Amino acid sequence: MNKNSKAHNILFEDRYKALNKAQKKAVDTIDGPVMVIAGPGSGKTELLSLRIGNILKAGTARASSILCLTFTETAARNMRERLEKLIGADAYRVAIYTFHGFCTDIIGRYPEYFFNATHFRPASDLAQSEILEKIFERLPYKHVLGGFHPERGYSYLKECQSKIKDIKKGGLTPSRFKEIIQENALVYPMLNKILADNLPDRVGKDSYNSFVTMRDLFIQSETSLGARYAISIGRALEAVDQTEKNTPLSAWKSENTTKDEAGNRVLKDFLLTEKLLALGDVYEMYQVALHQNGYFDYEDMILQVVEALTKHISLRTELEEMYQYIMVDEFQDTNNAQLSLVKAISSNPVHEGKPNVCVVGDDDQAIYKFQGAEISNILSFKKLYDDVEVIVLTENYRSTQKILDFARAIVVQGFERLETREKISKNLTAKNNTLHDGDIYTLSFPSPEEEYAYIAGEVATLLKNKVEAKEIALIAREHKQLILLLPYLDKLDIPYIYTRKENVFDEQHVKELITLCRFLATIGDTKYERDDLLPSILAFPFWGLDRISIWRIAEQAKRENVSWLSAMEQSSDKNIAELAKFLIELGIASQTTPLEIILDTLIGSKDIPLTSESPDDDASFLRENITLTTEFTSPYKAFYFGKSALKENASSYIHFLSSLRVFMRALREYKEGESLRAHDVGDFVDMHVSYSIPLINETSFAHNENSIQLLTSHGAKGLEFEYVFVVAVNDAVWAGSKKGSKLSFPENLPLTGAGDNEDDFIRLFYV
Asked: Strand 708-712 vs strand 472-476: parallel, antiparallel, or unpaired?
């Protein structure tokens, strides 16, 4: 045994000895199906690493035979780094992937099973919308999904695009989706009769027994649809028992039933049957068109792999033999497609229903429903395999007992919980004796502004009292509240780290460049010259033109019956005349000069090409080989991002650069390798606007390493801090309101996420 191996063994033994009883059981139970319920702060990450080390120590499998699936690249990277310290070089032989990364690898290694072995590329949201629009154009007259508005386009296009993504996350092919809807169509008449016979016209004190009868009859229907409605009625009845009010029954009636055209009380979902079948047809046509155009979309990757594994026994067998041990982290966040993937590579009859699959998760922490995560996966895992070992980790090393008790009082209010279904306890006990007792404060404010000012002041006081900034976190439901907080933090010079997501088209600096490109693209073509854009362009603050100067141009253009650009050329104001010449020269050049050069000239960045992402990319190459000389230097960069502006607001410059590069990257993808010109900008933006597709830019800004953290509730999951401020805690922000949908899925097909019931809101606050 070499020195490294000996050191790793000693480290493994030391860390294994530090485990509690339940953790050791999870590490030692390496064979058969295992479900580890790991509450917050219970040492889940350490457990996974040690379990892998224990499998290798036992000598039952090679490192390359262990597959670990997780949800983010960061989680995968952290797991490998932790494993490397524990087992050394073998850590790089363990297959650690995100679900999509794993599928990408399979498609790359076995191309003969996918897309007829031809090269396919991912479809952008824009490409998907274009394909769907062509499908909608071919729909028959008066088609149930064919509604068209002259200005807004096809009424159901965006809804169909969204629902198709949901269906794919649910692991359903077009044929399977339509099959379920057709099966439901046969069941609805029976369920509607139960409804008609038992649901009272007015819900009153004596309605309770009628709902009990309906629930029982729905169960007796022995259909998945009836069972789901029975569950929802059961919830309403339980709420009545707790509150002694009939409101939950009235709410059930309102949310689930309506009257048809004949005045009969029916289930709402029943009336959507025709549209959902049509959605299935559109989904089918979309898949065909997608592949004909050489595309696949993000959700396709898992579905394609599951389909290939189902269809090709040779591929499935090879992967089953390759991966003898499978581990899934954050199992509560899996959607049905991801679960189907796990089942597909663990279904070999040789396992006799007991494959070596270990899933780790916590149903109370299922907060990614907006990504298609299905809480029922963890609730029903025991039904997937035989003799599933359930291990519950209840010892917490992150929080004080006061915080754990407070959090439990919140989470037990949920209906769909593993603890209420199984005979287990998830009551967490604090085991970290080094933590000092903290306090929990609930404060109310007359306005958001006063709340933000208070928070900033409290943070400033903590920093003044020598609390490390990195131990302070501000957590909000959405980015909106965090953005509103920034000015208050800036005012007090509080250092912060913040990763924000914003639509590039809403970035004011980018909007100005888009308008300029629209104008430049029309110069030289007098028929289409966009003279109407000049009032807005001249009002851009970086030109430094006052309102009187702009008014004089308008007056001159009107008096002499000439265009604004001509009036600018003839202006006695030297600055305006030079600007006119600059725009004309740049407009003429834009017809033949690459867009990257035009944008850098508009920005006034002559030395460094801001549109480039690296020294050897297209923009840098173009700058080295193409010269565009103008006498006038745009004041854009100096105005917005000069030395004084940078000093005052460096994050704004970083955000602009990031937005500009995201914009250019998306444009290049849109043109598929063609040289970009100024006229491409308007076309590109117009298509995004017409399809209501944002262009999202995610940027991180940090004043320094020791800064406070600004996080959304989703981003804060799994992190720990000494001081936490939870922002804007009210129903309007944290619970929100349900978004209306033209195409809702039936009760037995819960595919749509986005936190659409009370349990989701409770889990979000708990985490």
From this structure: parallel
Q: How far is residue 387's CA from residue 392's CA, in Å, rounded to a whole number?
A: 16
As to burial, measured by CB atoms within 10 angstroms (0-12 exposed, 13-18 middle, 19+ buried), residue 466 is exposed
Say how far apart CA 530 and CA 565 lie, in whole Å. Answer: 10
| Cα–Cα separations (whole angstroms), residue 580 to 566, 590, 631, 637, 646 | 8, 15, 12, 19, 29
For residue 654, the model assigns a pLDDT of 77
* Cβ-contact 367, 339 below 8 angstroms: no
Number of other residues whose CB lies within 10 A of the CB of residue 95:
18
The pLDDT value recorded for residue 702 is 73
How far apart, in whole angstroms, are the C-alpha atoms of residue 144 and residue 729?
A: 42
Which token pair is 468?
Answer: 């490390």
Which of helix, strand or coil describes residue 299? coil
Q: Tokens for 330, please give them.
A: 């954050």
- Which pLDDT value is given to residue 741? 75
- Residues (pLDDT < 50) of the chain are 1, 370, 372-373, 619, 621-623, 754
DSSP 437: P
Q: Which two tokens stand for residue 504?
A: 């590039």
pTM for the complete prediction?
0.78
Q: What is the pLDDT of residue 212?
A: 95
Instruction: Answer for the pair 265, 224: CB distance below 8 angstroms, yes or no.
Output: no
- R_g over Cα of the chain: 30
User: Quick one: pLDDT at residue 347?
Assistant: 85
Element housing 220 (H / E) = helix 208-220
Long-range CB contacts (within 8 A, 24+) of 578-581: 578/631, 578/632, 579/543, 579/632, 581/631, 581/632
The 3-class SS string of 455-503 reads HHHHHHHHHHCCCCHHHEEEEECCHHHHHHHHHHHHHCCCCEEEEEEEE
Per-residue three-class SS string for 694-737: CCEEEEEEECCCCCEEEEECCCCCCCCCCEEEECCCCHHHHCCC
First vs last C-alpha separation in the chain: 44
- Reduced to 3 states (helix: H, G, I; strand: E, B; else coil), residue 400 is coil
Q: Give the whole-angstrom CA distance, residue 316 versus residue 110.
A: 11
User: How do beta strands 34-38 and 295-296 pair?
Assistant: unpaired
User: E strands along 601-657, which residues?
Assistant: none
Per the structure block, which two tokens stand in for 703? 């004043």
CA–CA gap between residue 221 and residue 672 (Å, rounded): 54
Output the average pLDDT for the chain.
87
CA distances from 678 to 503, 513, 617, 674, 686 (A): 21, 10, 19, 13, 14
Cα 145–Cα 146–Cα 148 angle in degrees, nearest 5: 125
Specify the 3-state DSSP secondary structure of 227: helix
Residue 293 DSSP class = T
Strands (E), 378-466: 389-393, 395-396, 429-430
Q: Phi and psi for 212 in degrees, rounded to 5?
A: -60, -45
The answer to whether 167 and 177 have CB atoms below 8 angstroms apart is: yes
Other C-beta atoms within 10 Å of 277: how many? Answer: 16
The amino acid present at 378, given as its one-letter code, is I
pLDDT at 754: 43
Q: Was domain 3-111+301-430 assigned CATH 3.40.50.300?
A: yes
